[in-house]
Design brief:
By secondary structure, the protein is α/β, with parallel strands linked by helices. The protein has seven helices and 36 strands. Strands 9, 10, 11, 13, 14, 16, 17, 19, 20, 22, 24, 29, 32 and 34 form a 14-stranded mixed beta sheet that branches.
Length: about 375
């Protein structure tokens, strides 16, 4: 069976994280949505039906048997529904098409069971607890990690899982509320205190004395330090020093400067409003706790302060004292005192220096994606209109 994950007209609601990837390539827990589906449906071949500028990196697939909405997370009911679809069938919930089989042109069927969908970026950290638990359950069967607390201490009935090469020294593991999973060659340095559920991807590092409140998840080759609470890092991103990051969704190739902090709760305890690229305004989130959402390639300097529910676009560079605005457009350079445009050539040069640190190459495909993102997000850089 071959699967295509398609982006629908709600993909903009997941910006800035989905500006640089299809929805199914978003990580929620240990695995991306596409990786989850591939395991559950036992498929070896899948592709993406996405925007033109992403297709060189996220390849389409011909003659797919089933098309699945890339924003939909697998759960037992929906997996059953997918496995029992008839040729020509379309599954939908409300106005959202969930999946089609063989073109889906013969008949439509409403899926009446609960379905889990990523509607906004903050849904990623909201759903982390369930997703970490489910990812661990399938990875225990496929990757066969071992369990041990040797050389460490802890409490709780859930397990601490180690893949090959993962190590922890003099750490305290609290698994009372969920398991802890360390990916291949991940490292927990001495003095870390971790409350599950928590996961680290391959090659990720927790620096000395890090305090982790679950549910939290680091993607592959990430670094975290200081205090983190209910965060998801996609991959290749760093928050290696003291400072607080909570209720946050961080993209790839981001760097949080030393002693930077984000607020995740308003002083008046009211609902947090979060910038929505689709509506072009700050929309109600329905959340009391919401911290930082940061697109790929963005960086902030030391002692940066982010207000509650701040959205940072792709390839922004933030620095200076005071709180910057709560929506920082893509390719912005500056801080509370104002912004100028982070020139595309300069942003690409930085990326070309950062990628080799993770043994990656910033190639023509990656550059073309940034060029297109720079073009389509220009409308949000209001200072350019006044120039």
């Amino acid at each position: 069976m071959k699967i295509t994950f398609f982006d629908d007209d709600k993909i903009g609601d997941l910006y800035p994280l989905s500006l640089t990837r299809p929805a199914a390539d978003l990580r929620c827990g240990i695995l991306t949505l596409a990786e989850k589906w591939a395991i559950y449906l036992n498929v070896k071949e899948y592709g993406y039906e996405t925007r033109d500028y992403l297709r060189a990196k996220f390849n389409p697939i011909e003659n797919a048997d089933i098309r699945i909405n890339g924003r939909v997370l697998p759960n037992p009911d929906f997996i059953y529904g997918i496995n029992h679809m008839q040729p020509g069938e379309t599954l939908f919930a409300g106005e959202t098409i969930l999946a089609t089989k063989g073109g889906g042109e013969s008949f439509a069927k409403e899926f009446t069971h609960p379905v889990s969908i990523l509607n906004r970026p903050f849904d990623i950290f909201m759903k982390l607890g369930v997703e970490i638990e489910r990812d661990i359950a399938v990875l225990v069967k496929t990757r066969h990690p071992f369990t041990t607390k040797r050389g460490n201490s802890g409490v709780g009935a859930h397990s601490v899982y180690f893949e090959d090469g993962a190590k922890a020294t003099n750490a305290f593991f609290n698994t009372e509320k969920g398991a802890i999973y360390l990916g291949k060659n991940a490292e927990v340095m001495e003095g870390c205190v971790i409350r599950g559920p928590f996961s680290m991807g391959e090659g990720s590092v927790l620096k000395q004395g890090t305090k982790v409140y679950g549910p939290s998840a680091l993607g592959p080759f990430c670094t975290a330090g200081g205090e983190i609470n209910n965060i998801q890092m996609q991959a290749y991103s760093n928050k290696g020093h003291d400072g607080f990051l909570g209720n946050a969704a961080i993209g790839e190739w981001c760097n949080i400067g030393a002693d930077s902090n984000c607020s995740n709760l308003k002083n008046n305890y009211e609902e947090v409003k979060v910038w929505n690229y689709n509506s072009g305004k700050f929309d109600k989130s329905g959340q009391q706790f919401c911290g930082l959402i940061m697109g790929d390639h963005s960086k902030c300097g030391i002692n940066t302060m982010f207000n509650t529910g701040t959205v940072v676009g792709v390839s922004a560079n933030i620095f200076g004292s005071g709180f910057p605005r709560q929506f920082i457009p893509d390719f912005a350079w500056g801080g509370a005192s104002g912004f100028i445009t982070y020139k595309l050539d300069a942003a690409c040069k930085t990326a070309s220096l950062v990628f080799p640190r993770r043994k990656k190459v910033f190639d023509a495909t990656e550059k073309a994606i940034l060029e297109k993102v720079f073009e389509i997000t220009g409308n949000w850089r209001n200072w350019e209109k006044d120039a």
